[in-house]
Amino acid sequence: MFAAVMSKRPLVITAQRNGRKADVRIEGVIASYEKANAREFEAQVSQLVASGIVDAHVYIDSEGGSVLEAKRLVGALQKFSGRITGEGGPAVMSAATYVGLHLDEFKVRRTTAYMFHKPQTAVAGNEDDVESDLKGLKDITKEYRTAYAKKTGKTEDEIEALWSKGDRWFTGEEAVAEGFVDGLVEDGQDELDEDAVARIAACGCPANKLPKAAPATITTTMDIKAMRATLGMPDTATEAEVLARVNAIKLENDRYIAAGEALRKIEVKSILDKAIADRKLTESHRAAYEAKFTSAYEATKAEVESLTAAPEVAKEVTAGAAAASAKGREGWDYKVWAEKDPKGLQAMMSSDKDRFSALYQEHYGVAPNLK
């Protein structure tokens, strides 16, 4: 879901003194906390605490990310022994909502896109590895469900019913009404730019929950006469009338774009459904390919059409082992293997552990647990 955004929104997190309080900013996808500046941030927090700072204010603008890294981030924030407040920017989604739940007070703006869903993960390895990962996922799911229930006053069964249907999107006002946050930030800074709206839309926010970008304005340097002529308006048209026409055209254009995006989503779903039915892909590939379609539709369509069907189950391990040593793949990194030949990557775990470990550590920053 967040693949297209993650490459453009790396995690940036800081903690700085602001009078007698610490200002913390969490911006980007919480999928690289350890690889970004976790140690630096935690050192900043420790230094502030050592200097006598006990209170903190946290700004969050994040599309979410790793549930485990979000939990570690909360642990760092809880070093502040006083009152920890916070506010949401354009996006408070997925694992980022977990951070907000653990603040003493957390408010959002009317234009904030707030989304939560059931924790997700990807698993790989033998049955022991899968069972271990599944247990971990169940534990973190229970922890998240309990935290949402405690914050909202809902029962855990009610939370389960809410997120069992997938992503749940709320406007800022709806998030307040449902009890996920404590109120609205009233600072007059609700307007979003087009880039913020675009990245929220890229995460799958429904059109009826998607905040609108600030309307276009005519600057004093713009030639109002030229604008009238371009729009076919009379010379007597006022600047307000010209601006209204510009905004009306933009609104109509946005409707065409939204309709086109809806049609494109249907086309992408059809292509991926067929590829999965033909054993060219598995369901686990869907989210990654949806993101690729968003950034490069034609190229991704050609790629999917060129894929070959996976071999029969009985032949998968043998074929995967052969693929792991096939020529022409020497330059593949872990991500490319995972996308283009996951069975080959799995076979590599047994047939070439050293190579698999090197690729895994390069991608995740830690050595794999190969038993």
Would you kindly provide a written description of the structure presented here, covering whatever features stand out?
With 371 residues, the protein is an alpha/beta fold. It has three domains: 3-117 and 167-202, 2-enoyl-CoA Hydratase, Chain A, domain 1 (Alpha-Beta Complex), CATH 3.90.226.10; 224-306; 315-364, no CATH class. It is built from 16 helices and eight strands. It has helices at 3-6, 38-50, 67-77, 95-101, 127-152, 156-163, 172-177, 194-202, 224-231, 239-277, 286-295, 297-306, 313-324, 334-340, 342-351, 353-364, and strands at residues 12-18, 21-27, 55-62, 84-93, 105-108, 113-116, 168-170, 183-184. Strands 1, 2, 3, 4, 5, 6, 7 and 8 form an eight-stranded mixed β-sheet that branches. Helix 3 (67-77) links the parallel strand 3 and strand 4 (84-93). Helix 15 (342-351) crosses helix 16. The protein is globular. The model is unreliable at 1-7 and 313-324 (pLDDT under 50).
List the helices and strands and how they pair.
Blueprint: H1 3-6, E1 12-18, E2 21-27, H2 38-50, E3 55-62, H3 67-77, E4 84-93, H4 95-101, E5 105-108, E6 113-116, H5 127-152, H6 156-163, E7 168-170, H7 172-177, E8 183-184, H8 194-202, H9 224-231, H10 239-277, H11 286-295, H12 297-306, H13 313-324, H14 334-340, H15 342-351, H16 353-364
Parallel strand pairs: 2-3, 3-4, 4-5, 4-6, 5-8
Antiparallel strand pairs: 1-2, 6-7
Helix pairs in contact: 3-4, 5-6, 9-10, 11-12, 13-15, 14-15, 15-16
Tell me, what's the shape? globular
Mean pLDDT: 84
Q: Please give the largest β-sheet.
A: 8 strands, mixed
- CATH domain fold name of the largest domain: 2-enoyl-CoA Hydratase, Chain A, domain 1
Q: Which regions are unreliable across 5 or more consecutive residues at pLDDT < 50?
A: 1-7, 313-324
Tell me the CATH architecture of the largest domain.
Answer: Alpha-Beta Complex
What's the total count of β strands?
8
Distance between the termini: 31 Å
Tell me the structural class: alpha/beta
Evaluate the radius of gyration. 24 Å
Beta-strand proportion: 5-15%
Oligomer: single chain
Give the CATH class of the largest domain.
Alpha Beta
Under CATH, the homologous superfamily of the largest domain reads: 2-enoyl-CoA Hydratase, Chain A, domain 1
Tell me roughly what share of residues is in helical segments: 40-55%
